[in-house]
Prior knowledge:
heterodimer; A: alpha+beta; 19 strands; B: alpha/beta; Rossmann fold; 9 helices; binds flavin-adenine dinucleotide; binds NADP nicotinamide-adenine-dinucleotide phosphate
Amino acid sequence: MASDPGEVGLSGWGNYPRVPTELLAPRTPAGARDLLLGRSGVVARGAGRAYGDAAVGTHSTISSRGLNRMRSFDAATAQLTVEAGVTIADILAAFEPRGFFLKVVPGTKFVTVGGAIAADVHGKNHHRDGGFGTIVESFRLALPGGEIVSCSRSENAALFAATLGGMGLTGMILDATLRLLPIETAWLRQDTRVAGNLDAAIDQLENNASTTYSVAWIDCLARGAALGRSLVYLAEHASRRDRELLGPDLEPFPSRRTARLSVPELFPGWLLNRASMRAFNELYFRRGAAQQGRPRLVHWDPYFFPLDAIADWNRVYGRRGFVQYQCVIPLDRARRVLADILDLVSRRGDASFLAVLKQLGDASGLISFPRRGYTLTMDFPVTDTLFAFLDQLDALVVDAGGRLYLAKDARQSRATFESGYPGLAALRDIRQQTGASTRLVSHLSARLGI
Amino acid sequence: MTDTKSILVIGGSSDIGHATALRYAKEGWRVTLAARDLEAAQRNADDIRTRSGVETSVQALDLLQAGQLAGFVAGLSTLPDTVVCVVGELGDQLRAQTDPELATTIMRTNFEAPSLLLEQFAQAFGARGYGTIVGVSSVAGDRGRASNYYYGAAKAGFSQFLSGLRNRLALAGKVRVVTVKPGFVRTKMTAHMKLPAPLTVEPDRVAEDIYRADVTRPRDVIYVARRFRLVMTIICALPEPIFKRMRI
Ligand SMILES: Cc1cc2nc3c(=O)[nH]c(=O)nc-3n(C[C@H](O)[C@H](O)[C@H](O)COP(=O)(O)OP(=O)(O)OC[C@H]3O[C@@H](n4cnc5c(N)ncnc54)[C@H](O)[C@@H]3O)c2cc1C
Ligand SMILES: NC(=O)c1ccc[n+]([C@@H]2O[C@H](COP(=O)([O-])OP(=O)(O)OC[C@H]3O[C@@H](n4cnc5c(N)ncnc54)[C@H](OP(=O)(O)O)[C@@H]3O)[C@@H](O)[C@H]2O)c1
């Protein structure tokens, strides 16, 4: 069943760290279960879009890419059952033309369903609609002992909650049933707002909390009184009527080709150098300001997945790779602490030129990342001084009662991790009971003692 | 819809068979997958139905079981518009050299059985007056090599069979025969091999080219990837005294 076994150097999307592991590629769910059985130091891997060391086993890594078959769809209930290696791109390619979308999507469509469940990924609507877990009806999980169990909110509920956001540490998800979202058009009705600084950006997000999608792109080059200067994008799925009003000559569901022709909303700023960047950010903000108060239609592909237009953009950071830093700060402390973090980052001067600010709602999984508050995300190239600097940021996050996202992490300390995740003890108990503690071990779990 | 077209894939458990059926399904064709591993075929059929919304079905067929091969076409409830045979087995060449039973299986699986089956379709399609027969052979059949000559010889036989069949049917009417010669394709068959990336394609490339050669841009013989036509022309042009000393 297995193919291409053998020792390879594997890393996450950030290309840091790169570590040796035995990579296994089963061709069927049953084959995956057989490979899991009897192995130790093993973890599942989806599309490898987690940035750090979560999807690399200390000894072996089982790829889900061969588990790429869809199983069934019921149009009446909008329930779709797929194997765990099916990607969000696959689902959208098959179902968007039939008028269905996914209620929760991350910033890239090239993630697997297994990976989306294991990280309980959040979209731009988490504050309103919750994480990926909320669209999962059930899944089948292969435990390290080889047993295959069905998990849902009513069956093996504890295992269900531990697996949502559980980073592959409870077992390997073989397949899952999701609920799709009916849509009337392929377009989003987007409103752009300019926020002169961080407070204004948070005000915008707060005042528009009833809007489905909201996100702020922060200009990391702005300092002083303009610290946190942002463009805030608010959006709803466009109804048939929105489309008639705002884009009478646009097709409700244009072919993929035409969709791809529309320019990504976000220019990949960090592909440019700092000098041209300042000019670019200026332009970017002026264009945003010009769009203020005039809603316009944007296709879902560039709207949700702007970076997908550029293949392998992660390579621009070179061989040493990069780290994506993503923290969440509870509501009451967010304004102060995020300002402090942005200030440190802008002084250091080597972060990405744009940072992302989003609202989050309550968590659903035992160690899911989201919690009510604001989450800030930015990229840093790996350098000799980076980790000491990020430790400084961690101290601010810990002090504020916040936490870091495991799907992005490659370097936080155990203390930082433990202070942020109160559900950890319960997860450890479940891992003990199923024999996962010693068997399912990723570089992430070994590093953090999960 | 009565004018829905249909495709039957023989070897529906394979990656190339799956991809090909899915390609046709996306154009609304009904799909039947025949295979000896029914569970694998059902998994593929479910995938195709879910992705495309077309009707799919599966059918048991082991080509090496004489009882199943004879009368297979006569027993079909509906005759497809297109039949694609992807059945094949690479086999272990080294073992085949000392194991006549394995050598026989390789030769029968790649040449004898597919040919006998497609002859049945040729007759049924001929009687009906139309249809396309797609046979998946291999570039390995273009010249015998040390590393896989049982497989290669059988594929050569199959390619010649398809060529002759095409010749016969072209004289008679509207039944078409398409010979497909893949080079390297990333599938279950090649999962254990290190394939040269620039010459290797995914199964959906083969599927796309088959669909085109059948439906949108009719062709008799296609190489996938296309550049393999040139590669094989060069390999076939090498004089035997040189070729026999080469390791390719
Ligand atoms: C450009 C970009 C934008 C992103 N935007 C967002 C965003 O907006 N919101 C967000 O939440 N995340 C975001 N992410 C992170 C990404 O969504 C998550 O890391 C996701 O888990 C990646 O899925 P994957 O299939 O690549 O899984 P991998 O990266 O391969 O694995 C991630 C984790 O899932 C586990 N896993 C994978 N498959 C299985 C399985 N079958 N069974 C059990 N465990 C499994 C692995 O063990 C690992 O712990 C982004 C990533 C990129 C590259
Ligand atoms: N992959 C390549 O690089 C490559 C290159 C050139 C040509 N090809 C040809 O492409 C075709 C498809 O191959 P693939 O790569 O997709 O590999 P594959 O999955 O091994 O396909 C071979 C198919 O033939 C079936 N089969 C074998 N013996 C059979 C029998 N007695 N009765 C019924 N079915 C039988 C197999 O069924 P099971 O699943 O039950 O085994 C399988 O579906 C083959 O003809 C192959 O020779 C492949």
